[in-house]
Design brief:
With 248 residues, the chain is an alpha/beta fold. The protein contains 8 helices and 7 strands, in the order βαβαβαβαβαβαααβ. The protein has one domain: 3-Layer(aba) Sandwich (Rossmann fold). It has a 7-stranded parallel beta sheet, sandwiched between helices.
């Protein structure tokens, strides 16, 4: 119960990895805000957490909208009185276009980057007035794709790493830590919708732990980085990837 009486917002928590994060936090005592654009699925996750004895609230949130992000923060404070943690997990990934950078429609590219990179800054700014009252912790969901230099998804995640580092300097004096988690290939409906079975087999065959990850494989990392056990860790991106990406 490391998070008893604390309040955590998880964006993109209506399914996949974000749902796993929200459920893990609730199991350890956090009151959880499910912030997602998918209303039916998000309400279902919140109701399921409540049915298991947890505390949860759904709020429909488009992380690319300043107004929606501020409404998300207000809803969290209105329901639970405070904000201690933010997990920036929401992304445009399922069904994303895979066009090369030199050919992708620029309106789509701008929308993609506004969600996948700028959204984390927008939501961080929205929770800051509430989180700075007592301090807190933030986790940005990045990806090992940041290191693979392949298309706009890699660009967005590489930029998100940079945002994490820059914000660590700005937020540290406010007693707020910020770190990143870089998942490797993780078995979710979103991944299975953008990569073929053959492509995934090729990726997995090169990994020391030669299997796809699961959302639950990632939950321990987010719990650790948000918890007081990581109280002297900030500006760090943790790979949780079966050894896919190694660096010295």
């Amino acid at each position: 119960m490391r998070f008893k009486d604390r309040v955590a917002i998880v964006t993109g928590a209506a399914g996949g990895i974000g749902e796993s994060y929200a459920r893990a936090l609730a199991r350890e005592g956090a009151r959880v805000v499910i912030a997602d654009i998918k209303e039916e699925e998000g309400r279902s996750v919140a109701a399921s957490i409540e049915s298991q004895g947890g505390r949860a609230l759904f709020t429909r949130t488009d992380v690319s909208s300043v107004e929606a992000a501020e409404a998300m923060a207000a809803a969290a404070v209105g329901a639970f009185g405070r904000i201690d943690y933010l997990v920036n997990n929401a992304a445009l990934f399922a069904g994303m276009k895979l066009d090369p950078l030199l050919q992708v429609d620029l309106d789509y590219y701008y929308r993609f980057m506004k969600i996948n990179m700028h959204g984390s800054l927008i939501t961080t700014r929205a929770v800051l007035p509430h989180m700075r009252k007592q301090g807190g912790a933030i986790v940005n969901q990045t990806s090992t794709a940041a290191h693979m230099a392949h298309g706009m998804y890699s660009v967005a995640k590489y930029a998100l790493n940079g945002l994490t580092f820059a914000l660590a300097r700005e937020l540290g004096p406010l007693n707020i830590r910020i770190n990143g988690i870089a998942p490797g290939p993780t078995e979710t409906p979103a991944l299975l919708g953008v990569a073929t079975k053959e492509q995934l087999q090729g990726i997995v065959s090169t990994m020391p732990i030669a299997r796809l990850g699961t959302p639950d494989d990632l939950a321990g990392a987010v719990l650790f980085l948000l918890s007081d056990e990581a109280r002297w860790i900030t500006g760090h991106v943790m790979n949780v990837d079966g050894g896919q990406w190694m660096r010295t």
